[in-house]
Amino acid sequence: NAGVMQNPRHLVRRRGQEARLRCSPMKGHSHVYWYRQLPEEGLKFMVYLQKENIIDESGMPKERFSAEFPKEGPSILRIQQVVRGDSAAYFCASSSVRTPSFHEQYFGPGTRLTVT
Amino acid sequence: DQQVKQNSPSLSVQEGRISILNCDYTNSMFDYFLWYKKYPAEGPTFLISISSIKDKNEDGRFTVFLNKSAKHLSLHIVPSQPGDSAVYFCAVAAGGTSYGKLTFGQGTILTVHP
Fold it and tell me: CB–CB of A43 and B44 under 8 A?
C-alpha cells in the first residue's frame, strides 16, 4: 500500500504533555501538508512543507506548534504543552508535481488527539 | 470570514436518483477546485477536480460543474448509491503566496437511502 501513512491513529495526552504526530507521504511525493479538523468543523490548513523546508506555515498557531520534514524519515507535527483545545483530528496529505495537478492532495487516515 | 461555503449541512437522496452538492466561494483568485469524500474516522478521499479554465469535468458517475461568474461549483452524482453516503467537502486552491494550501468548506452529509 503506497498511500499516505500516519501514526499513531489515536493519541491520548494529559494537559502539559507533548504530542508528536508522524506522516509518511505517498511514494514519490515530496510535498506534505498538515490539516486540523476540530469537532463539527471542516478541515483547516496548518502548514505546507517540502523536504527540509517550510513553505507556508500561515495556518500554524503561533506558539507550541511546530512541523518538520527532514531529508530522511517522516514529517513530524509537534505540539508542546498540549491543552484541551488541541483535541482534534490531524490529517496529513501529500502531493507531487507529477500528478495531473499539483493541487490534488492525497490524505492519510488521520491522528485523533485527545487531551485529558 | 468563510471563503468557501457549503450551505446545505445535509442532503438525503433515494438510491438511483441524482445527488447535487453545492459550494460557493468568494475569492476570484481561486483557480483550482476539488471535491473530497470522507467517511467517519477516515481521511478525505479525493474524488474529482476542475481547473478554472474549464466549466465541466466528468469521471464516471461524478461530474463537477464550475460557474466562475457566480463563484459556484457543484458535484453531481448519478446514479446515487448507498455506498455514496458520506460527508462531501469542496476545496479550493489559489496560486501566488497561497500555492499549495487548500481551503475547505464545512462539508455536506449525504445520505443515500436504498
Answer: yes
